[in-house]
């Protein structure tokens, strides 16, 4: 094996170079260079030996290195033996003869050996350069970079405030190379109680967004995707960072995996996104501490009346399910902040107008004062007026809006100072949308309109923060 040959040579040269510089004379520097090159290649020899059977190029490289090691050993030993022979002799006369009459022979021999040493040095340097062709030792360079990266990441982690450490370790729950939805992560952190606002006028969601920005700036999470106007919509974790997260999570007992259900009563989060479920699991309503429940993209078609037991629930995600109507018991969930219930149908049939399917809510939605996201709501008679009580809304989506309910909707929207996104669709393509706002919400960024308009609302031009205005509407029979 080349590894053995090189290590034996290094063991031979180290004491010679350290203690017999005078004996090596002019070839000392050359021999030391050879040893340095050999030492630099030792680390990748084990990898090369493993790959020898699969790669002819590696096999040739190993043979060349092995031969160079043997040749170096031979020439150094020959030189040392030659020097030893010059010092042999028992009398002064012998030493005098050696010193004076054989001096020329010694110089000639040393010159010959020096030439051979320089040739071997050149060979070894070329062999060392060729290892890059086969990728030998590159993994060691990568490992060195990874070690340095881990050291930096650990320093960043150690420097995090305690509340951000919990948010960071929570990322251990996501699979490798998984794109984590920005808003979903925020809702999960909130449900776990990791995010709190110390100022009355700053919402918890805004604090959570700032947490994510801090982690991005520190390089602990990466931006995975942005929308068309630059807003971050998903993030991910680098493989090296994920290793550290998993290690720290185990070390600090942050996560626990169990097959039993005896510990489930204290659960705050259940994410069943995409699971093959057709019926709502009744056991869920026994989890009285639950704050986050996602049944997104399941085949569930209705919620049980016992849903009212989840009085701590803050997020209910039913996007992509078959739920058409919510039970009246949903009104008992007074802490609910995010209610997402809609799906997209018939897009493949080129029917964009009614592709969004919403949900029928019971009368009394105005009692759910903590709601911040509500989409999509079927605009049933008498219900639109209740929206004026939901002043905390940031996102509102309503479909099947009748012309006569337009004024009530506008009155409600004018009270929603935090509204960022507003989507409305009339009951059918020829239904007139009556959207006369005297003072639209100042923070409004996205407006989605579907239906018939007498004219484009004048208040649209008053929106200083508007970034998106997609429309599927007609004005006096003409699409715009």
Written description of the protein model:
The structure is a single chain. The protein is of the alpha/beta class and 480 residues long. It has 3 domains: 2-136; 144-251, Winged helix-like DNA-binding domain superfamily/Winged helix DNA-binding domain (Arc Repressor Mutant, subunit A, Orthogonal Bundle), CATH 1.10.10.10; 264-479, Leucine-rich repeat, LRR (right-handed beta-alpha superhelix). The chain has 12 helices and 15 strands. It has helices spanning 2-19, 21-24, 28-51, 56-86, 92-100, 103-130, 138-158, 162-169, 182-192, 204-217, 239-251, 406-413, and strands at residues 180-181, 222-226, 232-236, 269-271, 292-294, 315-317, 338-340, 343-344, 356-357, 373-378, 395-401, 421-426, 446-453, 471-475, 478-479. It has a 10-stranded mixed beta sheet with strand order 4-5-6-7-10-11-12-13-14-15, with helices on one face. A 3-stranded antiparallel beta sheet has the order 1-3-2. A hairpin with a 2-residue loop joins strand 14 and strand 15 (478-479). Helix 1 packs antiparallel against helix 3 (28-51), helix 3 packs parallel to helix 6 (103-130) and helix 9 (182-192) packs across helix 10 (204-217). The longest helix is centred in the N-terminal third of the chain and has 31 residues, at 56-86. It is elongated, with a radius of gyration of 38 Å. 28% of the residues are buried.
């Amino acid at each position: 094996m080349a590894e053995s040959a090189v290590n034996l040579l290094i063991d031979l040269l180290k004491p010679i170079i350290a203690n017999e510089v005078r004996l090596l004379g002019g070839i000392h520097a050359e021999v030391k260079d050879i040893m340095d090159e050999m030492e630099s290649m030792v680390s990748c020899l084990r990898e090369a030996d493993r790959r020898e059977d699969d790669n002819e190029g590696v096999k040739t490289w190993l043979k060349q290195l092995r031969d160079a090691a043997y040749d170096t050993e031979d020439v150094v030993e020959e030189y040392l033996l030659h020097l030893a022979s010059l010092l042999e002799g028992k009398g002064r006369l012998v030493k005098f003869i050696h010193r004076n009459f054989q001096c020329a022979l010694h110089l000639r021999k040393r010159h010959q050996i020096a030439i051979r040493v320089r040739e071997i040095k050149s060979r070894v340097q070329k062999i060392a350069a060729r290892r890059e062709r086969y990728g030998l030792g590159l993994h060691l360079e990568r490992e060195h970079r990874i070690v340095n990266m881990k050291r930096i990441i650990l320093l960043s982690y150690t420097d995090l405030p305690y509340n951000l450490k919990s948010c960071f370790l929570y990322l251990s729950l996501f699979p490798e190379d998984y794109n984590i939805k920005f808003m979903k992560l925020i809702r999960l952190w909130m449900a776990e109680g990791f995010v709190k606002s110390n100022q009355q006028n700053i919402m918890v969601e805004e604090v959570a967004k700032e947490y994510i920005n801090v982690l991005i700036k520190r390089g602990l999470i990466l931006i995975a995707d942005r929308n068309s106007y630059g807003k971050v919509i998903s993030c991910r974790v680098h493989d090296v960072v994920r290793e550290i997260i998993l290690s720290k999570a185990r070390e600090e007992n942050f996560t626990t995996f169990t097959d039993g259900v005896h510990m489930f009563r204290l659960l705050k989060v259940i994410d069943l996104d995409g699971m093959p479920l057709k019926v709502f699991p009744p056991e869920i309503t026994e989890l009285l501490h639950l704050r986050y429940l996602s049944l997104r993209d399941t085949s569930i078609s209705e919620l049980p009346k016992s849903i009212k037991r989840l009085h701590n629930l803050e997020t209910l995600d039913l996007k992509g399910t078959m739920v058409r109507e919510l039970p009246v018991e949903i009104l008992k969930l007074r802490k609910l902040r995010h209610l997402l219930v809609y799906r997209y149908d018939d897009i493949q049939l080129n029917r964009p107008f009614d592709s969004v399917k919403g949900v029928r809510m019971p009368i009394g939605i105005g009692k759910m004062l903590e709601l911040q996201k509500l989409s999509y709501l079927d605009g049933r008679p008498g219900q639109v007026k209740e929206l004026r009580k939901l002043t905390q809304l940031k996102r509102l989506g309503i479909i099947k809006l009748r012309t006569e309910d337009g004024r009530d909707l506008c009155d409600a929207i004018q009270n929603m100072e935090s509204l960022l996104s507003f989507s409305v669709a009339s009951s059918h393509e020829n239904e007139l949308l009556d959207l006369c706002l005297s003072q639209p919400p100042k923070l409004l960024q996205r407006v989605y309109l579907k239906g018939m308009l007498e004219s484009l609302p004048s208040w649209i031009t008053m929106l200083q923060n508007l970034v998106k205005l997609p429309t599927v509407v007609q004005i006096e029979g003409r699409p715009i």
